[in-house]
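explain this.
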Amino acid sequence: MSGPLRLVPPRPAPSAPPPPAPRAGGPRRPRWAHDPVDELIDDMGELVAEAVHPDEIAAVLEADGLTGDQVRERFGRRDTFELAAELYARVPRRHPEPLPRTDPWAAHPGRFLFRGLVFALPGLGYALGAPFLSGPPDVLGLPAGSGALTASALVGWAWNQALAHRAYTRLASGGHAAAGRCLRLGAPLGAVLAFVAALLLPAPGAALAFAAGQSAYLAAATALLVLGKERLLPLALAPTAVGAGLSLVLELPSWARVVALLATIGAVLAAATRATVRAMGPGPVNAPAPPLAASLPYGLFGLGCAVLTTVAALGDMVRYGAGAALAGAVVIALTLSMGAAEWLLYRCRGLALAALADSTGPNGLRLRAARVLGLCLAGYLAALTALVFTTHALWPAASPDTAPPPLGAARLLAVLALGAVLWSGLLLQAFGSAWPPAAVCLAAAGAETAALALEISAPAVVQLAVCGAASAVLLAFATALLGRITTHR
């Protein structure tokens, strides 16, 4: 036999009309074997061949107006997804060379270096105001006023994270006028709530005054950052920065310290007020406001991050008493690293788009996305490591009370684990996935707080274990998210 046995339909009777002429490119199936999917392949062949995932084909079919009922009647398939999967399986992959593309997420790193400095400079206010925070030990044996300042910072951090999300959302939907009106109400309310949190704990009057200034600064700085006026913050912080620098080389009188701090608070409040009023402008805002619940996970994420950072700074003092060292260098390093973190978030989004363009299938996209995620995270952790060593070496050590704790392997790895939690959580938020990082960070914060209260192991060891597990969970979420095509649309 010269070939496999094939079933041949009966030859048509002489009186029957002649069969239609074959199409160009090959013989046409006889009518008894006609499949409408073949015609669809003829019409959409190039698009199907270039698709990376069946969902791309399904999206095109639905965009062309093909409904589920039409798919069942015309093609005999359950829905557009089944039809798309069959088209994807029947047409070989053919991917043309990608066209030259521009990166929509390209950004100059200098801008983010500047933002990192803006985030870190307010810490100089603590150095300038430290002499006023004297008195009997506070709760848990911490220095006077620590409890009130910590409570105020936690509330302010959580509130302003949620406020920033809501204001940015209003900025995108209704422009500067909508964002300004959101900040006009939200920023003062957040400052009041943060100060009320400080009043709930016993503290000397100087500590409460400092908490009031801290609350006002956080609210005003949030407004300036949302409205794109962050360049005004270094100018407002200049008096505090100069005063803190002078305090390292000479003994500043109390009045000079107070004047420097008040000058910063007054300048930042004036700048934020002016920027907000100018942003609101005349006329109504027609864009609908999003529900308040949409900003809730961002606030909870901020609260969880604030607790984790506070435990990293004060954990040894709470665990071993006021004689233990304050890990302030760790907090400064984390704050400075936020500039690098933001830049690498931009790079991750740009590289993920390039990975999508270079991928020829779902598996290829997942592998490339995982590689991009690992590369950007490694870059951030390298920057954080350098900053930890630098701040630890430069931290003022005029007395044993101000010297930082030894930077052993456990403490360094714990800081890097905390950095990985912060960065991966921000990445998930940047891609619109807000609840996973909020839930994971709150759980990690609760676990570290419970371990500290129960005196389970050293704080650095607990932080390494808890933040290591939390970062692994968040990175698993991020890998799955970046590996989906719809994430990058």
Q: What stands out?
A: The chain has three domains: 40-90, 112-290, 300-483. The mean pLDDT is 86. Residues 40-90 form one domain.
